Amino acid sequence: MSGIIGIFSVDGKNVMDDLFYGLTALQHRGEEGCGISVNDGKYFHTLTSNGLIYYFLKDKLEKLKKMKPSVGIGHALYERTGGLQPVEQWGDQNVNISLAMDGVLLGFGEKKHDSVMRTLFLDYLRETGNFYSAVERVMEKMDGRGPYNVVIAARKGGKFYLIAFRDPKGIKPLCLGKKDGMHIIASETKALDIIEADFVKDVEPGEIIIISKDGMKSRVLKKNKHAHCAFEWIYFADPTSTIEGRNVYLVRKTLGGKLAKRYPLDVDIVMASPDSGRAVALGYQQGLCKIKNTFIPFDEVSIKNPGAKRTFQVEDPKERMMAARVKFFINKDFVKGKKVVCGDDSIVRGTVFRDGMVNKLRNAGADEISLVISCPPLAHPCIKDPRGKTFAAQGLTGSVEEIGSKIAKKLNVDRVCYPTVQELDEAIGHSDTCKACFNGVYPVKKRFAFCNEERDEKNIAFYITKNKSKKKKLEAGD
């Protein structure tokens, strides 16, 4: 997961402010690094850095605005399967591009995925001579290799373009917006809202959109069975965003209501693990009040440390345990001697609950601790995760109640309340989602699922040998 945005002004207006604030609105999609690329009328200027968007770009904003860019792209980096982006490169026929992507490409070993995408796009553009055919070739090459959304700022023959395309399975979200004479491509509708742009539509799976001063053109090049990542609604996306017609917050709150029906517990107080557990906790609390015909309070028992790290991205066990302990702080007076329900989006390894939240609630004197979780048990690693990563529910079978009972013992809580996959589908409103982390059915070709390094290196070696002219570029990370 990463955040991407692209803006093109057909009437040549300055897009810098909208690019900056639109990208900042996508900060939740990536905190490892960021970057932008804008034109000055002749060339692209690309800036990248580790860290957060606002602090990197705020002092550069006025200087960038003076270039009066009419096209620009931005990127918020989530994980190091890609490098700092956008990535810029010159091609043949006086072509210059800057590219940013949200996705994971399987079968390319240790190569940065954005660099592989950039090289392929330029090579196919050189061979075919047009954007449509180049992207069609990219989609053929990437068939079954995982999710990707791409925005490209391009200069070809002295003319500027904004190009965007979404993988044929539509695994990650991408939308199109419009504001006056500007066309905006973004990972989520939240980016459109912050710059007061109108939502036009979700970019279709396999669709390419090409924008120039002549206007916007689009075409669906290739379409497979839809497999939108269910975790976007569960955790990744912002609660204010709408994806495929379903508001993220509403989906999470609906799941809380379904959990109240499945698990109508006798409790004293409902709380959330901030921030992604708030909607499911509120949905559970409101649903439980209706079922019990009495008032059960929801309170901000847990306060998040704003400087805390995302714990599931920390691989070292000791560091992860300490990160969990400083992630939240508890208002002790609200839980002493009480039966507490805590809502959260998911249980991955269980570290945050066991060593952080649960440990602190026990120390604060909670009489009982129950967890209500937005998603079914995580039993299989995502296609992008290391093979060695294990989940708390990995290998467990049975009903969600039976699995929840086993996980409760692992986490030192009284009960864990999971929804079923069917309840998740009902809340999202779409059944054609990727639920690989629940059922092990992956939307990729079998030969690319969990590629080991030996196989990856064979794939990339074959690709380089097949076309030696690309070897130098790939070895340089281009």
Walk me through what this model shows:
The chain is an alpha+beta fold and 478 residues long. It has two domains: 225 residues, Glutamine Phosphoribosylpyrophosphate, subunit 1, domain 1 (4-Layer Sandwich), CATH 3.60.20.10; 198 residues, Rossmann fold. The protein contains 16 helices and 23 strands. The strands form six sheets. It has a seven-stranded antiparallel sheet. Strands 5-6-7-8-12-13 form a six-stranded antiparallel sheet, with helices on one face. The chain starts with a strand and ends with a helix.
Question: Topology, pairings included?
Answer:
Layout lengths: L2 E7 L6 H9 L8 E7 L4 E7 L2 H5 L3 H5 L5 E7 L9 E4 L4 E9 L9 H16 L2 H11 L6 E9 L2 E8 L8 E5 L2 E5 L2 H6 L3 E5 L4 E6 L2 E6 L7 E2 L1 H6 L5 E2 L2 E2 H15 L6 E4 L5 H15 L9 E3 L12 H9 L2 E3 L8 E6 L6 H13 L4 E6 L26 H12 L3 E3 L3 H8 L4 E2 L1 H4 L13 H14 L4 H5 L3
Parallel strand pairs: 14-23, 17-20, 20-21, 21-22
Antiparallel strand pairs: 1-4, 1-10, 2-3, 2-4, 5-6, 6-7, 7-8, 8-12, 9-10, 9-11, 12-13, 15-16, 18-19
